Write a sequence for this structure.
């Protein structure tokens, strides 16, 4: 092992990247325990900001709404995106290459452009901005991400298992649920996680299509910037960090187990 | 508080006949304004007085409380973050049986953009004075029905007949404050009394001015005895020179977040709002506020009702409710700013006295710059880059 230790500069560069990525998060978590409303210097340990979380109904409601929209848009986008990916992989139809190319348009288009175009569309259709418009917008940009991820998984997938199932008498429906979906599962899961993350922290598009009663967490936090970012924000961020890390760890385990049969 | 949106400039050009309707439509669309907005501006400019008759005024002498049964079941408020006391809305909901939602925004520009989309759905919004000028020029806000707001009388005369609501028909003043100098008593030999403190090299690197064009340029205009809404090129050039001179001594341009550095002592002198200074002083009693002798700006945020408000009766009921002395005082206790409600002012935990007539003479409201906004923008860019 030791004789294959990478050169020193590689270690230095790697450490630098890790510090660069994680130091701000560490500072954020540390200051969630700081006993001062404004100060950026350490004033002593407190759990006060975590208690405040339960008093700030606006933050809690925003968090609930963000999770709700995140889950809702993820479920819809994952279902639609997976079906689209399978259709594109299996069926040959005129204009297929064009449809595939279109998939990348929302991914490479700047968020502000997507947001404005959705806003103009909603206004033209006379929609009342609110939770529903945010949900539609999030589904719209998430479908592409899910499709691209699931598509990649489909590329590397062995079709002989599906054919075997059909030969052995399973109908399309059974084959789909019992063979295809389990094989695709890691792709679907990463697509879903990606779209939940995109939805949960989206600000630009969300703020453009938001309306009464639809302030998600990023919008509420942004509104607080002008005057003062109370350390309650640090506390809620720390909680989100821990929950996300746990979810990722869980997803990794589930994805790993389900994906395992592929190797056999 | 920076520039006004280009659409506003266009709308003014249109009203004053500098621009044909066709050119207006094309240019506005070029700015990315949606068709419905263009349509609404054109309607507003055509002089059609289509006053939303909507719900007529209540019978004369009707008790506003008895009206509660006929209120809409919903109310949607769009307001600055942390601008309500924690119990303001829950108590209103309980008493009036109206479900209220509160959303927040970060700048007047964000609010104006939301209302311009034409379908905001909000019943009450809370812009700063100059933004009210813009909104009413765009025809986006509606006159209030004073007969439904008997508590309007609680507002101090100082905050009535303002430049952005000269006839007292559009606004219910919400919070006010002034921009002056916050300083550390223990770190300065004597309290500052002039904007000249920012030219004093003795405190170089220990001072900040706000990250705001109107406040910084405005302060240096006042320093030379001019209006902080000046459009005179020579006066502006002098203000720029003074600002650049001060900049050499500044640690940075920083607004509300400077409170942390004042508390720690990294910054001794900061241009700041009185309310934010009071919040910082609650953590460190060595922090004090002074209004420079040359004067400064006073701001007033006020509630207005968009023309498109779906729940107008509930909106009026809420406005009357927040004008109750104890409700108004609770709001100002939460924000740290002053209340324009003269019956609420004596109830504040940390009193914010109304400006005296002498102080009022030194204070000026920031006004919309109109077509000169670009010249100011240019100046501010040069100051920050120079």
């Amino acid at each position: 092992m030791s004789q294959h230790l990478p050169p020193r500069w590689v270690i230095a560069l790697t450490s630098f990247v890790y510090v660069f990525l994680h130091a701000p998060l560490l500072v954020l978590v540390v200051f969630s325990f700081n006993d001062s409303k404004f100060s950026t210097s350490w004033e002593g340990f407190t759990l006060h900001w975590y208690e405040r979380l339960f008093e700030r109904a606006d933050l809690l409601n925003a968090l609930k709404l963000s999770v709700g929209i995140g889950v809702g848009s993820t479920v819809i986008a994952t279902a639609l995106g997976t079906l689209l990916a399978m259709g594109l992989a299996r069926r040959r139809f005129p204009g297929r290459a064009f449809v595939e190319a279109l998939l990348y348009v929302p991914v490479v288009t700047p968020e502000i452009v997507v947001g404005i175009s959705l806003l103009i569309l909603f206004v033209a259709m006379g929609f009342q901005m609110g939770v529903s418009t945010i949900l539609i917008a999030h589904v719209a940009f998430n479908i592409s991400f899910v499709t691209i991820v699931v598509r990649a998984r489909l590329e590397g997938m062995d079709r002989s298992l599906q054919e075997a199932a059909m030969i052995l008498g399973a109908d399309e429906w059974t084959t789909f649920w019992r063979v295809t979906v389990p094989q695709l599962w890691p792709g679907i899961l990463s697509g879903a996680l990606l779209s939940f993350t995109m939805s949960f922290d989206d600000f630009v598009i969300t703020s453009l299509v938001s309306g009464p009663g639809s302030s998600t967490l990023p919008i509420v936090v942004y509104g607080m910037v002008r005057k003062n970012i109370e350390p309650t924000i640090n506390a809620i961020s720390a909680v989100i960090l821990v929950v996300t890390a746990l979810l990722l760890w869980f997803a990794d385990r589930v994805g790993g187990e389900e994906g395992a049969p592929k190797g056999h | 508080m920076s520039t006004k949106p280009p659409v506003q400039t266009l709308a003014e050009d249109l009203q004053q006949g500098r621009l044909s309707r066709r050119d207006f439509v094309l240019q506005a669309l070029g700015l990315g304004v949606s068709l419905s907005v263009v349509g609404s501006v054109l309607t507003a400019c055509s002089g059609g007085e289509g006053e939303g008759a909507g719900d007529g005024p209540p019978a004369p002498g009707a008790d506003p409380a008895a009206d509660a049964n006929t209120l809409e079941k919903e109310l949607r408020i769009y307001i600055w973050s942390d601008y309500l006391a924690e119990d303001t809305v829950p108590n209103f909901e309980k008493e009036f049986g109206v479900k209220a939602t509160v959303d927040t925004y970060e700048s007047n520009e964000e609010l104006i953009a939301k209302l311009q989309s034409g379908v905001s759905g909000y019943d009450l919004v809370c812009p700063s004075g100059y933004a009210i000028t813009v909104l009413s020029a765009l025809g986006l806000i509606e006159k209030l029905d004073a007969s439904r707001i008997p508590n309007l009388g609680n507002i101090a005369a100082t905050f009535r007949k303002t430049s952005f609501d000269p006839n007292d028909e559009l606004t219910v003043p919400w919070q006010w404050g002034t921009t002056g100098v916050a300083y550390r008593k223990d770190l300065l030999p004597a309290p500052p009394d002039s904007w000249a403190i920012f030219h004093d090299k003795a405190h170089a690197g220990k001072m900040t001015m706000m990250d705001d064009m109107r406040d910084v340029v405005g302060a240096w205009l006042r320093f030379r005895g001019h209006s902080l809404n000046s459009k005179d090129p020579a006066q502006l050039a002098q203000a720029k020179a003074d600002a650049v001179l001060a900049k050499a001594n500044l640690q940075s341009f920083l607004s509300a977040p400077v409170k942390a550095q004042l508390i720690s002592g990294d910054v001794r002198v900061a241009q700041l709002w009185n309310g934010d200074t009071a919040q910082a002083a609650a953590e460190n009693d060595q922090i004090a506020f002074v209004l420079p002798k040359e004067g400064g700006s006073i701001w007033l945020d006020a509630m207005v009702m968009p023309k498109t408000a779906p729940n107008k009766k509930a909106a009026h009921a809420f406005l009357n409710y927040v004008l109750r002395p104890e409700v108004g005082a609770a709001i100002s206790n939460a924000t740290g700013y002053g209340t324009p409600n003269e019956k609420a002012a004596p109830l504040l935990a940390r009193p914010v006295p109304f400006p005296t007539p002498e102080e009022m003479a030194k204070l000026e409201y920031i006004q919309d710059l109109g077509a000169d906004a670009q010249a100011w923008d240019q100046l501010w860019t040069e100051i920050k880059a120079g």
